[in-house]
Write a structure and sequence with these properties.
disordered C terminus, two-stranded antiparallel ribbon, globular, 14 helices, about 425 residues, transport, mainly alpha
């Protein structure tokens, strides 16, 4: 009886949410011009409404399951519900299973040559994956596709996010099947929160390219330390070191010089607009939440990086596909692909480079740590700007080039002084003990 009641409430909430989303969608279409510069607001609202039709019924189901212990019922039909709520499919997790984890064997001392070879492999993989991803990302969102009779631009950022996520899910899923991992204990529903922020950050990133140039986007992403510091100061009264304030000022100066020196309007490229600035801010906010939420999950449930990648991308596939189905995104994107076969290849290469790039991220961090990874990715951002300017004709004056140099110099100085600060903290206990 309780089971039927739970299913009935879930279905009612799903229908009510869908009706509410349909009504709001019609109102938004009337209020906002579909072809105007602010049309991205309409697409953003449609995306949120699509996610809501998944979130609300799932929230109701989770609450009912926890209240009536539906996930403890026997039978294979409840395994998926247990996976959502507890992170495993077992009715009772044996106590001995807590020790059944893949214990990392102590790595043997590697020669300098093997370390250098491994670093070169990771560095090359990251550079190729994300440089290709950046080039194709800009091509898809800013360039026109022609089939001989019709010339048009692709406009559905949600579809590109879906393609990237589904291939990343397949890659991580296959990896989990081939290689043994820790016992998975993370409730699937907890992945959904960072999945929403992750997909929205990607959506904002793609949409921003309609209003700002790719070099501007890359520099803005490099400068995300500034809003993070401001938020920390306002919300948690965080204290920062002098080098952190100095590098933040340098990044601000570099960004200002770049924007003043990127004279793009003369060549007819996208210029920085209010919409572009808002979308870039949205990207920074959502991306910051994703990193913090994932960090909290690592601390609480200790999933492996690949398990995290698989769980987040699974939730992202469910959310983006539901939104695409409701608002006709699949029909538009597939019909566009049918008219432009080159677009299909661009999409597949973008998704492939994104998925392989994620695998290289995990490999680099696990072998060489986050500092080396940050340096590699900072170099990649500089190369991305250079390639974008060469391939797509973005004009940078000497002032713009100086701005780019200042930004990346500030990032490297920040990394260097952060490492020096960590070393001083590590050496402090030893010096205090020796004095006693």
């Amino acid at each position: 009886m309780t089971t039927c009641l739970g299913c009935g409430n879930t279905q009612c909430s799903a229908v009510a949410t869908w009706i509410f989303s349909a009504i709001i969608s019609q109102i938004v279409k009337v209020v906002i011009d579909e072809n105007g510069e602010a049309s991205w607001i309409m697409r953003f609202i449609f995306t949120i409404l699509g996610y809501t039709t998944v979130f609300v019924p799932c929230y109701v189901l989770i609450q009912l399951s926890q209240r009536h212990n539906l996930h403890t019922l026997s039978g294979c039909q409840w395994r998926f519900l247990r996976l959502i709520l507890t992170g495993n499919t077992y009715e009772i997790v044996p106590e001995t299973e807590t020790s059944v984890e893949v214990k990392a064997t102590k790595p043997e001392a590697r020669s300098l040559y093997s370390k250098a070879l491994s670093l070169l492999y990771c560095c090359t993989g990251l550079q190729i994956s994300y440089l290709l991803w950046g080039i194709l990302q800009e091509k898809i969102m800013t360039r026109e596709y022609s089939d001989g009779d019709k010339v048009e631009k692709f406009s559905d950022s949600q579809f590109l996010t879906f393609v990237n996520r589904i291939l990343a899910f397949v890659f991580s899923g296959v990896y989990l099947l081939l290689f043994q991992q820790n016992v998975h204990r993370t409730p699937l529903y907890k992945y959904s929160f960072c999945s929403v922020s992750n997909t929205l950050s990607s959506w904002c990133q793609y949409e921003a390219l309609k209003f700002v140039s790719f070099p501007t986007q890359v520099l803005a992403k490099s400068a995300k330390v500034i809003p993070v510091m401001l938020m920390g100061k306002l919300v948690s009264r965080a204290q920062y070191k002098n080098y952190e304030y100095a590098t933040a000022v340098l990044i601000s100066v570099g960004m200002t010089a770049f924007l003043l020196g990127s004279d793009e309007g003369k060549k007819g490229n996208n210029v920085t607009t209010v919409s572009g600035a808002v979308l870039l801010c949205g990207y920074l906010i959502f991306d910051s939440f994703t990193a913090n939420w994932q960090n909290a999950l690592f601390k609480e449930h200790q999933p492996s990086s690949i398990q995290m990648m698989c769980g987040v991308n699974l939730m992202s596939c469910i959310l983006t596909s539901s939104s695409l189905i409701q608002h006709g995104g699949f029909f538009y994107s597939l019909s566009f692909a049918a008219r432009h076969p080159v677009f299909v290849m661009d999409c597949l290469l973008t998704a492939l480079s994104s998925a392989t790039g994620q695998l290289f991220i995990f490999a680099t961090i696990s072998k060489f740590g986050p500092v080396v990874f940050t340096i590699i990715m900072t170099v990649r951002q500089g190369l991305s700007i250079l390639l974008s300017c060469l391939l797509y004709g973005h004009h940078l004056s000497s002032l713009g080039v100086l701005g780019v140099f200042i930004v990346f110099l500030a990032i490297f100085l920040r990394i260097y002084y952060a490492q020096q600060n960590k070393k001083r903290k590590a050496d402090l206990p030893e010096s205090s003990v020796s004095k006693v």
